[in-house]
Amino acid sequence: MAKPLSKAVIPAAGLGTRFLPATKAMPKEMLPVVDKPAIQYVVEEAVDAGLSDVLVVTGRNKTAIDNHFDRVYELESTLEQKGKGEMLRVVNESTALADMHYVRQGDPLGLGHAVLRARMHVGNEPFAVLLGDDIIDARDELLKRMLEVTEAKGATVIALMEVDPSMTHLYGVASVEATDEDDVVKVTGLVEKPEQGSQPSNLAVIGRYVLQPEVFDILEKTPPGKGGEIQLTDALLTLADDDSIAGGVYGVVFRGRRYDTGDKLDYIKAIVQLATDRSDLGPDLRPWLKDFVAGL
Question: Which pTM was predicted?
Answer without folding.
Answer: 0.91
